[in-house]
Every structure is written in C-alpha cells, then in structure tokens.
Amino acid sequence: MGEQESGGSEGSTSAEENDGVLPLERTLDERCAISLFNHLRILAYELALSVSSADQDMEAIAISFVDANTQAALAKCIVNFWFICGSHVHEYWDEAQQRSWLNRLYVLILGSQEGLVSLYSGFVILRDCIFTLHWATGRSATGWSAEQDKSWLCRLSDLAAPLAARSKSLSRIMSHERLFPAISLSENTPSYALSGGKTPYRNGYLPGPMSSWRLTGPQKIAAGVAITVPGGIALSALGLAGHYLINGSQDQSAALQAKCDELSRIQVARKLHPIVITNNTESTLKFYLYRSTDVVCVRPIGGVGPDSEGKREIPAGQQALFRPSVSGDSFWLKGYSQFGWIEYPEYSGSVNRGDHLTAARTGTGELKLFGEGNVTVGN
Q: Got the DSSP string for 43-96?
C-alpha cells in the first residue's frame, strides 16, 4: 500500500508542477495543524504558570494563552510574557540573544499579516522560541518539580518529529493527545482557527482539499521555499531560522526583516533600559517625556491620556519608570509642580534610555535632576 501511494505521488509530480497544485506531502494537513497548535499553546501556558508564583500580572499573561486562537496571537502572548519576566530571566541570556529571539516572533506576527510566513514556518518559530524561553526563565517557581520539567521537555521534543515529517507523523502526535488538557479553539475551528478568519494563504493556512488549491507563479516559488525548509534541526538554529522560514519576494522579506529588527531593538531597550526617576522632594511632581525631534514639546509620547507612556505623576519619595516604545535612545523631559489646577514648569532637559535620575531641590528651591555621581542633568 505504501509503495502504491509513493508511486502515485511521484507520477503526479510533473502534472502538479504544471498546473500549480501544491503537493499534499509538503503541507501540514488541517487536523495535524490544529493538534500541533493546541500542544504549543498548552506548553506555553504551563511554562508561564511555572514562573508566575504570586505575580498577578504573570498569571494574567498565562491565562491569555488560553484565548490565543492564531499563531500571531500566541506569539504576542509570548512577547508579553517575556517582557514582564524581569528577574526571572537567566543572566546569561544577553541583549543580543534576546533581540534575536524577539526578532523571530515579530517575523511571525508581522509576516502573518503580510502573507509572508507559512503555517509550517510559524510552528517552527513558536516551538523554538518556547524552548528558548524555557531555558532562559529557569525553573525556580515553587511547585515545578524536576519530573514536571522533564515531562514538559519531552512533550515539546515530541513536536519536533511531526514538524520535520509534516503530516506523516500525525498518528504519533494524535496518540499523545491524551497527555494534554483539553483546550478547544474558537467556534470556527478548524476552517479559520489559525488564520484568524482572514484569507487562508495570506495567513499561511492551506485549506483542503489540497488538490483544488491553485497558486500563482510567484506564490508557488515562495511556498516551495518556505515549506521545504527542514524543521528537525531548528532547535539548534536559533539565530538563522527566521531568515530561511520566510516566503515572498526579496524586497518584501528585507522590509519585513528591517521592521522586525527595529521592533526587537526597541522592546529590548524598553525592558532592560528604562528611564528611572526618583522624587526626592516633599511634593508631587509630574514629568512628561517627548521625542527628541519634538523641539516644542507639543505631544508627549503616547499622548496625554491618563495611561500615557509619556506621562508620570510621582508622589514625594517615590519612583517611576519611563519605557518609551518609539525609536531612538535620547528624549526630551519636562517636569512640573502642581498648584491646584495649574502645572508650573520647573524642569526641561535631555535624557537617555537607561538613565537613573533623582529629582531634588537646591538650597534656593530650584528643581534639579541628578544622575550618577550626583551630576546635574538638563536645565
């Protein structure tokens, strides 16, 4: 039976290439795709819980994995989890490694929107990034035993074979499905579950039956490149896989990669190098952060709303952080004192990411900001 199937596949290869049909054996079928996605999501959920401890924000992130119904949504949850991990992250996971790791997730998030990442590529990226996050966060949470950790790693490694062999290993992974809690996808499963209800091909989702799916000339080339990349070795190719798992034109890939590079650099800088201001005065101070190019300081970064990332109200003796989500490392900071409904300007100066500043008054009552070594900043 196996020989007959193999022969039939070989005999139809030339015909498929001529009429634009994507060969069955080079795709993840629908049932396998849903199963693999569920497994990845549950493993990410358990990983988040393993380091959550009493941190309510971390628990909220863990719960968000349950509602992630697309590959891009799951990638966003992983990014959020990484951002609030804080001291849980391994000391040997340096900035460059974190940027490279984050870059791959942005390739998936943005590439799915642009139709440049295949479904198979998304699985490889998610699997590898979850594996790296497991190593980087450590297993210090109370209640996460060595046996649990070993079981978790075994379950993750079980996903490598189905990814490498596509749907040929479907029976193996489905036989292990009893090991995983039952978390169903949306009511649209399986037709729109991973694509978010958008155009199937643009979101890397290949519908069935495959024999009726026609691709244009450029799409055939792009799909062939993305889907035929081996996935079994991807766990050890953390820095290179993102470049080989994107389909589409060279210009589109270059533009996507540039955007992902910039986003990953900004996010790592936001997390690791916040601007810290300590109010060492006896009154509440307000600070507004602006882009360095906003020379007249018209609009703070993030707007003027109560939750704006460019606005901080710091009571006496307390501390606040700015984590600007815009490009650049230099910004303009303005400080105010509040007198009733009036904000009185008292400070204006340039600050940089990573600055740790203390607001204090001089003997004359003038407000100054001091950096490391008690050096005056601005004004």
A: HHHHHHHHTTTT-HHHHHHHHHGGG--SHHHHHHHHHHHHHHHGGGS-TTS-HH
